[in-house]
């Protein structure tokens, strides 16, 4: 697939660096990840261009179907049979945590650019794992803090009933209650729910100032669409989506999504660098003008950072590559001022956006207006608080 010609160094296994994009290609995350993530990884391989050392790179991919057993089977095959050196992307925390365990004592690197569980840099931290873009701590705490500063003291949660949703709700609840707010209730729903009526009516009747959607992908889209039918925001309640991307807004349309608050690590229209990347991405095969999500940007950034570390060390073994990655401190073109900590957490700014009204949008994918910027040192859990065994 994406490759750079030339001879690889002897320390690189099989004379080629193989990066496996593992994600949801056919389900609720296919727009925010899917084949767009594969193209982002290919872009990173092309831009790496052998690292000045003729290092060959191959990008492979597979669909984990949002099932931990399927994802685990793919990872084991990649590790034991197919010579894959790194796994990137992996939306769905249950799948990501399973992959994290499998790779812990292997030579493979886990670039968890879409796995949102905070346990990856906490009790489940691994010397083989780097976590980019978002996590439940940042999503829960940072979003709650930003909303409470704007008067959102009373909350009701609509939460997907698996590791991701529960983690976000727990982190947000902890922050809200510690800072004088109240959680008036919570409704749990299965992954892939189509009918949110009963959950939204409970949220509406709670009279909570803020309704927090602790879910993602198609679940969030369905919830927002049905909330618009019920006139929830017109009734004075504010809806905040903890994990929503520009692709999701495009799918539901500004008429439905207008006024929604959301936290993002990346927006394609932030600056010249993000716009240049987005323009290239939109022109890729199969993208048909689509702008990249934060998760897809994270696949690009983490894959390129990994390949640069391979070039610097002359090895694709996680024992060499991951420590090299953790020496990085500087400006990433897509995520701004960036540091990679000893627990594997990549630190960068986060942004609270509000979705524009239809009449405020001037061109395709012009969907967000910036409400607040959360500096990198405030956006993520402090290094010493995660309980990670890698932190001395």
From TrEMBL:
- Kindly give the Pfam families that the UniProt entry links to this protein: Peripla_BP_6
Note the superkingdom of the native organism: Bacteria
The record, for SUPFAM superfamilies, names: Periplasmic binding protein-like I
Which GO annotations describe the biological process of this protein? Answer: amino acid transport
Q: Does the keyword Transport apply?
A: yes
State if Signal is listed as a keyword. Answer: yes
Keywords on this record?
Answer: Amino-acid transport, Signal, Transport
Show the Gene3D superfamilies listed in the entry.
3.40.50.2300
All residue ranges annotated as the Leucine-binding protein domain in the record: 17-356
Name the CDD domains on file.
PBP1_SBP-like
Family affiliation? Belongs to the leucine-binding protein family.
Record protein name field? ABC transporter substrate-binding protein
Q: Which organism is it from?
A: Bradyrhizobium pachyrhizi
């Amino acid at each position: 697939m994406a490759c750079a010609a030339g001879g690889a160094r002897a320390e690189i296994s099989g004379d080629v660096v193989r990066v496996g994009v593992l994600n949801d290609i056919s389900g609720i995350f296919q727009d925010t990840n899917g084949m767009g993530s594969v193209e982002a990884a290919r872009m990173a391989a092309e831009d790496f261009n052998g690292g000045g050392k003729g290092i060959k790179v191959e990008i492979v991919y597979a669909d984990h179907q949002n099932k931990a057993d399927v994802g685990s089977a793919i990872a084991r095959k990649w590790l034991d049979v197919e010579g894959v050196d790194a796994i990137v992307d992996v939306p769905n925390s249950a799948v990501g945590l399973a992959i994290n365990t499998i790779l812990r004592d292997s030579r493979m690197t886990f670039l968890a650019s879409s796995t949102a569980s905070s346990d990856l840099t906490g009790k489940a931290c691994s010397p083989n794992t780097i976590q980019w873009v978002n996590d439940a701590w940042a999503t829960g705490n940072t979003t709650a803090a930003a909303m409470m500063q704007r008067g959102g003291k009373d909350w009701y949660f609509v939460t997907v009933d698996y590791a991701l949703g529960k983690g976000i709700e727990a982190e947000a609840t902890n922050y809200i209650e510690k800072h004088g707010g109240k959680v008036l209730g919570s409704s749990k729903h299965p992954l892939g729910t189509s009918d949110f009526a009963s959950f939204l009516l409970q949220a509406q009747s709670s009279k909570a100032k803020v309704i927090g959607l602790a879910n993602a992908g198609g679940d969030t889209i369905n919830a927002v669409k049905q909330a618009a039918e019920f006139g929830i925001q017109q009734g004075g309640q504010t809806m905040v989506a903890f994990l929503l991307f520009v692709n999701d807004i495009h799918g539901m349309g500004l008429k439905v999504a207008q006024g929604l608050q959301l936290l993002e690590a990346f927006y394609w229209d932030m600056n010249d660098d993000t716009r240049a990347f987005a323009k290239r991405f939109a022109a890729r095969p199969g993208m048909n003008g689509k702008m990249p999500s934060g998760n897809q940007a994270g696949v690009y950034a983490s894959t390129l950072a990994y390949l640069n570390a391979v070039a610097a060390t002359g090895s694709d073994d996680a024992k060499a590559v991951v420590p090299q990655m953790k020496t990085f401190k500087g400006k990433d073109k897509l995520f701004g001022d960036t540091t990679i900590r000893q627990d594997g957490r990549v630190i960068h700014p986060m942004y609270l956006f509000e979705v524009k009204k239809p009449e405020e949008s001037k061109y395709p994918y012009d969907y967000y207006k910036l409400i607040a910027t959360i500096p990198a040192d405030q956006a993520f859990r402090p290094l010493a608080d995660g309980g990670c065994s890698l932190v001395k």
